[in-house]
Structure to design on (509 residues):
């Protein structure tokens, strides 16, 4: 019952009352230390009161709980060295990491905890010592891996075509080699080494990604932008395309260019994932993801309807015309593709000045240009501009969340020998087996005093100004006189509050 009450207090809107009641309940806890403590009992979702405060973005309760966990090591004047307990914070030995819970929650207030002590210092220590070097090395290794795969695709086994052309539009001169003919020369053996590296890399990607999907869940793993959800979809699809290409090569099945092309596009697009390691480029990947899976997905439904309607109209208009003179609409699939290019203004409207165009083509093309180019494209630009404006206001916050997610990901996947535990063991200071983070803080007492005096002056001036406004609204007929009296009153009030403030400073000195 006590643990349930603690969880309820974390969710209370009155933060001061919740903190006092939290302390009162813990004062009656018999097992204040150890596994039987009320603070260490999780709820049905596996969250302790401390983790629940982080998930809900309750910064007041989080700071209150951290004040209870800290130990003052030494103090000399304004300098103070504090040991913060990293239990439930450090993701090194946690199955359900506190940092991962913060970056995966949908509440923006939770990300503000990343700027609080000791979370900010812990993340900075992990990222600067291990996260950034390992992440840069992983980015370089992945780029070299993609270069190897690209060269294998460029020099894939082809041979001249032996059969006759079936139509005048057939332009094929090379065809795919059979498996027995693909690995005969020294160059083929070099390509085989690159292909083996590519296949091994695809298998490693699947081995690393599948356990995380089973642990977190597909909806949460692929749906969180900060966790890199869309990039996880891209890299898993890329690995599957590599394996499909390998099967088609081993079975000598024609058409391996289809999965190979998809793999090239997806593999190189996944390079944008490594932009999150840099503060200048990281927020732009967030913008791209939000625009693609937010604005562009909704816009594509409208675009598909417009393209389908006008492509059908263009195909009907040119159905009776000679395709040798105007071949952009010679069949229905080509009509759809040509209309898509016209929609994005990639090409101009097809025209042949040697022959007459149908009259209805001019009418339909005029309506298409107004609807597609002037209306819908500007609508898409406005939607993306609004998304850019919203993301730009929280770009630094999102980048820090990306860094935390990347740090936790690397810490989980790398061996323990390459990523030692951060902090100091409590046995060195007689604090048990828990791990602590040493943080040095500088406290300026004069700054806090001046802040209190400033807040007192602001409160007095604000009260006096509110009273003046109430007096001005009593009688609007004599507004001019009221304004003069309000101005004189504000001057006397400011002098009074200023005099009172100087009296406080004089007595304190």
């Amino acid at each position: 019952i006590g643990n349930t009450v603690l969880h309820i207090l974390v969710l209370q809107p009155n933060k001061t009352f919740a903190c006092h009641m939290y302390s009162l309940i813990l004062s009656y806890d018999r097992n204040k230390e150890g596994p039987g403590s009320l603070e260490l009992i999780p709820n049905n979702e596996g969250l302790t009161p401390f983790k629940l405060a982080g998930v809900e973005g309750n910064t007041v309760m989080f700071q209150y709980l951290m004040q209870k966990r800290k130990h003052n090591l030494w103090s000399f004047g304004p300098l103070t060295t504090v040991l913060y307990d990293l239990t439930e914070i450090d993701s090194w030995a946690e199955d359900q990491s506190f940092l991962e819970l913060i970056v995966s929650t949908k509440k923006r207030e939770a990300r503000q905890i990343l700027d609080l002590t000791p979370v900010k210092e812990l993340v900075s220590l992990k990222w600067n010592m291990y996260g950034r070097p390992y992440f840069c090395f992983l980015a370089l290794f992945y780029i070299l891996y993609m270069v190897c795969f690209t060269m294998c695709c460029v020099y894939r086994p082809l041979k001249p075509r032996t059969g006759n052309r079936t139509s005048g539009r057939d332009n094929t001169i090379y065809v795919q080699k059979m498996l027995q003919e693909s690995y005969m020369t020294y160059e083929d053996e070099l390509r085989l080494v690159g292909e083996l590296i590519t296949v091994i890399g695809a298998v490693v990607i699947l081995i690393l990604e599948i356990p995380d999907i089973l642990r977190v869940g597909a909806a949460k793993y692929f749906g969180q932008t900060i966790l890199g959800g869309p990039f996880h979809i891209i890299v898993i699809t890329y690995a599957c395309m590599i394996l499909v290409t390998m099967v088609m090569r081993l079975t000598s099945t024609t058409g391996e260019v289809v999965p190979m092309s998809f793999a090239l596009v997806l593999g190189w697009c996944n390079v944008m994932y490594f932009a999150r390691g840099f503060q200048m480029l990281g927020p732009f990947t967030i913008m791209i993801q939000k625009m693609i899976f937010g604005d562009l997905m909704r816009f594509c439904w409208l675009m598909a309807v417009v393209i389908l309607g006008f492509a059908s109209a263009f195909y009907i208009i040119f159905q009776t015309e000679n395709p040798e003179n105007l071949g952009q609409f010679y069949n229905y699939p080509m009509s759809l593709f040509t209309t898509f290019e016209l929609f994005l203004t990639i090409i101009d409207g097809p025209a042949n000045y040697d022959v007459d165009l149908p009259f209805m083509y001019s009418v339909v093309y005029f309506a298409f240009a107004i609807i597609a180019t002037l209306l819908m494209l500007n609508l898409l630009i406005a939607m993306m501009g609004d998304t850019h404006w919203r993301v730009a206001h929280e770009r630094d916050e999102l980048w820090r969340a990306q860094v935390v997610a990347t740090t936790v990901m690397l810490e989980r996947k790398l061996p323990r020998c390459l990523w030692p535990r951060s902090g100091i063991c409590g046995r060195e200071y007689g604090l048990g087996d828990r791990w602590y983070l040493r943080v040095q803080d500088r406290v300026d007492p004069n700054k806090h005093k001046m802040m209190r005096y400033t807040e007192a002056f602001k409160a007095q001036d604000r009260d006096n100004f509110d009273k003046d406004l109430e007096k001005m609204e009593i009688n609007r007929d004599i507004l001019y006189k009221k304004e003069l009296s309000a101005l004189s009153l504000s001057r006397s009030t400011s002098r009074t509050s200023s005099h009172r403030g100087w009296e406080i400073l004089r007595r304190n000195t």
Summary: The beta strands are 71-76, 79-85, 158-160, 174-176, 424-425, 435-442. Residues 475-495 have pLDDT under 50 and may be disordered. The longest strand covers residues 435-442. The first helix runs from residue 2 to 10.
